[in-house]
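Lab notebook, design round three. We kept the backbone fixed and only want residue identities now. Task for the bench partner: fill in a sequence for the structure below.
Input structure tokens:
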């Protein structure tokens, strides 16, 4: 190609020939020949290069891309398909429940106190002893009370004989009726005094107020006790219960007599049954919790003891139409949960809202429909629209523990690549 230019003086420059058909040849850099390198000509040359360089770079890039078309497709075989495990969203049964811990207690606990002051003569029971109603637990030595009782008995005999004599004299009109009434009143007072002293002396024998087991013995023989001092604690262990605090948001789902399941830390691997005995009518104004009593039932409760920790599971709600998928399929944290759904052989991320978890599966409240196929393992390596390769799940003994184990391409059963999985 021939170029001609006229300078400011009107003179024609010599012919300029573009040398080198290939811009990568040795003559390529010498684009202009026999061109006088004056200041004005150098300015023209700089403008020429500034105009031509973008086209030269574009041509180079196009040639490079034309030579390596496979780079955009991941090499000779295209992009590497990510191995994944899949599962199908299906309807199932879900029960919402809550488990609360409490302490096992006897249904009744009674403290046995002294009603007299004195020294303990004998203490007849130890902790763990079973007692019946009225059994003597200890005796208090009260000699002065015994002496007062003997004096009252003598006064009662004298009053009785006085009344008998007065009645005989009244028949002979020797004494008046008023005198007879006075003697009768003295007899009644003497009888009351004797009865009161007998009752007080009965308090010297400390007796069990109910049938049960002695859980505390706080005194020993010879101790000096005072009135209202605690001596023993007796518990009715025939019936055991546990009291737990239930949220005001959940207590509405509970009913009196409802059956519940319990586990006890001291008896691992065994499950007990119980029923709701009482739901308290008021809630704590600070914690908004309501006490609920659960009574343990069944013959197996004989191996339980007061003070054990029991964990009570309340079933709050049960539904048979819950949409369930494996928990491992859900990605992300609270507020941004999502799953990968396989559609026409390609993964697509979809935001979901989850509910309760049941035996390794989670309820999906929003975002999926029954029959949708979701990626369970390998989702961390998946991107929207990329190729995937479906593999069989690992055997339980071969599975690697972890929240999202990667699926190894062990047994390739189907290849999802631009079409539905086979």
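Proposed sequence:
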């Amino acid at each position: 190609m021939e170029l001609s230019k006229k300078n400011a003086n009107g003179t024609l420059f010599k012919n300029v020939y573009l040398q080198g058909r290939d811009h990568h040849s040795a003559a390529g850099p010498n684009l202009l020949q026999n061109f006088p390198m004056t200041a004005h000509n150098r300015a023209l040359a700089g403008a020429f290069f500034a105009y031509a360089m973008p086209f030269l770079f574009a041509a180079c890039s196009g040639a490079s891309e034309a030579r390596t078309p496979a780079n955009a497709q991941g090499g000779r075989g295209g992009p590497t398909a990510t191995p994944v495990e899949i599962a199908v969203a299906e309807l199932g049964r879900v029960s919402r429940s809550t488990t609360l811990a409490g302490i096992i207690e006897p249904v009744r606990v009674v403290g046995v106190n002294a009603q007299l002051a004195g020294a303990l003569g004998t203490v007849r029971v130890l902790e763990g002893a079973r007692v019946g109603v009225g059994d003597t637990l200890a005796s208090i030595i009260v000699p002065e009370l015994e002496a007062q009782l003997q004096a009252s008995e003598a006064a009662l005999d004298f009053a009785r004989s006085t009344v008998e004599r007065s009645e005989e004299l009244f028949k002979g009109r020797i004494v008046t009726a008023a005198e007879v009434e006075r003697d009768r009143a003295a007899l009644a007072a003497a009888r009351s005094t004797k009865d009161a002293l007998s009752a007080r002396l009965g308090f010297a024998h400390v007796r069990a107020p109910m049938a049960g087991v002695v859980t505390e013995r706080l005194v020993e023989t010879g101790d000096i006790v005072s009135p209202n001092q605690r001596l023993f604690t007796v518990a009715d262990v025939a019936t055991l219960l546990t009291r737990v605090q239930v949220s005001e948001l959940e207590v509405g789902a509970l009913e009196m007599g409802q059956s519940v399941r319990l586990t006890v830390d001291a008896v691992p691997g065994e499950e007990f049954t119980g029923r709701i005995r009482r739901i308290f009518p008021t809630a704590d104004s600070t914690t908004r919790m309501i006490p609920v009593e659960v009574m343990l039932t069944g013959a197996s409760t004989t191996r339980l003891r007061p003070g054990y920790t029991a964990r009570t599971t309340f079933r709050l709600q049960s539904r048979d139409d819950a949409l369930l998928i494996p928990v491992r399929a859900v990605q992300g944290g609270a507020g941004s949960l999502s799953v990968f759904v396989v559609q026409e052989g390609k993964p697509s991320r979809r935001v979901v809202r989850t509910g309760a978890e049941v035996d390794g599966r989670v309820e999906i409240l929003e975002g999926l429909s029954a029959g949708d196929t979701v990626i369970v393992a390998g989702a961390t390596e998946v991107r929207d629209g990329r190729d995937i390769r479906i593999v069989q799940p690992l055997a339980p003994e071969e599975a690697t523990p972890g929240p999202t184990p990667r699926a190894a391409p062990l047994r390739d059963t189907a290849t999802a690549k631009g079409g539905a999985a086979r």
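Keep this in mind before ordering anything: DSSP finds three helices and 22 strands in the chain.
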